[in-house]
Amino acid sequence: MTSRTAPAISDQHEAITRQQWKWTSLAGMASYLDAGAIVALGSGLALFKSEMGLSNTVVGLLAAIGPNAVGCAIGAFVGGRLGDKLGRKRIYKWDLLVYAAAIIVIALAVHPAMLFAGAFVVGLAVGADVPTSLALVGEYAPARGRGKLLGLTQVAWKLGPIIVLLLALALSPFGLLGIRIVFLHLAVVALITWALRRGMSESVRWKEASSNVKVDRNFSALFRGNNLKALAYTGAIYLFMGLAAGTNGTFTPYIVRTIGATSQATSVALSCGGFVIGIFAVVLLFMRFSDRSFMARRTMWGVGATLQVLAYVSFLVLPFTIPTVILHLSLLAIGTATAGEATYKVFSQELFPTMLRGTAQGFTFGIARTALGIWSFFVPALASAGIEPVAWLLAGFVAVGGLIGFVFMPDTVGKPLEQIEAERA
């Protein structure tokens, strides 16, 4: 059990403590459970479809309301706001219990209604947890360690799909029972995380800000002045980079089928390989350089966005073979690690005042996930027309998001949150 004493507000020169690493790991499990639920649902949809006689339309709706789209978006909108109004601890104290219960409903589902209810509530729970947990990490991280600690949550996000994909492959001989076991593993992880989180205490920064009657905490304050600029910036980079990254999960199986490598083992190996490369890139590049200087952060973003564009362009200029797919996944893994969700997480903590931090991130997170859900309806039709249209569109999304992120990137590296807030006010 961790200590119940919250880390004090950190000075910009303070090193990351063991407790901060531990609490970040627990908070970062929201990302593990988010990604794990998305991949588990994707892995099991075909089996549930066969078992329950679901139509393609029903399968599409099920995917749209779950943890990758609408359910998560609603949870983020509501949870982020409640985390600001009621405190971080009140949200993360209960949302994982809701998550575990909903996952168990999916695991035991014998009727489509159980699948729909479980998927939707899982989305709500993980959507509420993500902005609240990330706000907590940002608020107790030292100024020269925010990127490193928030990068650790991204490692958790990439680890979730690896574990789920390997479990699904190992349990594939058991058919639907194997997928049910995969879901039950997520419920167990959620309950263990919930138990360990009980030793965490409220954010010191939130307690101080919530007791200050002069602090503007109205939702409308998000849409004025520098808050609006920050909302537009973080929302734009997450929307465009997220559309490409989120689509890639649907896109990769199509690629594998097209080149004739139809075995499940090949598909899992390629997907897991990309996530493993991504983990190394986050640890060795993002976590190492994100807090070093503004130039380092901006250079990483520019290089990462360029690599992602090249990843999609590779399908347009190279022979469509396994080596090309490996090159594509490698470029994408490194690119998204240095110019993607991890950077969005950092700026979502740095650019907003404490009493609007969760609200802002819940808003942009929810908008992006809703857009991804709508966009996902069109991906299969586009993919059926060939790889070129999808590759061009995804390269375009990344180019737009990358340009916005690079040109308008603010200089917040190494500054305490109070200093950033004062400067922006």
Q: Describe the largest sheet.
A: none
CATH architecture: Up-down Bundle
CATH class descriptor: Mainly Alpha
Q: Terminal Cα separation, in Å?
A: 39 Å
Overall shape: it is: globular
State the order of secondary-structure elements, H for helix, E for strand. HHHHHHHHHHHHHHHHHH
Q: What ranges have pLDDT less than 50 throughout 5 or more consecutive residues?
A: none
**β-strand number:** 0
Number of continuous helical runs: 18
Radius of gyration: 20 Å
Structural class: mainly alpha
Describe this structure in words.
Helix content is 78%, strand content 0%. It has 425 residues and is an all-alpha fold. The chain has a single domain (18-200, 219-424), classed as Growth Hormone, Chain: A, CATH 1.20.1250. The longest helix is centred in the N-terminal third of the chain and has 35 residues, at 18-52.
